[in-house]
Design goal:
By secondary structure, the chain is an all-alpha fold. It is built from four helices and no strands.
Length: about 80
Amino acid sequence: MILSDRAQVFLIATLQIWNNESMEDFLNRAYRIVTDDGVDNDYKLTNIHACLAHVLIVSEIICSLFIYLFENFCSKGRTKNH
């Protein structure tokens, strides 16, 4: 298992070193696998995986910040009588 921070250079290096394939070769192989068209060799090679949990966490923070800023921006134009 290879742990990576989703850096493209590490993903490509993994494919080149372990599988002797390019990213394009990998994407074609992955497509064959997910469309149930894979050949025996497709399943024998290393499959890279980039976890998106951190991306989702950051997205939640950004959305929360946007909502907070938007609410504060909208409330500045209001008076206490409205």
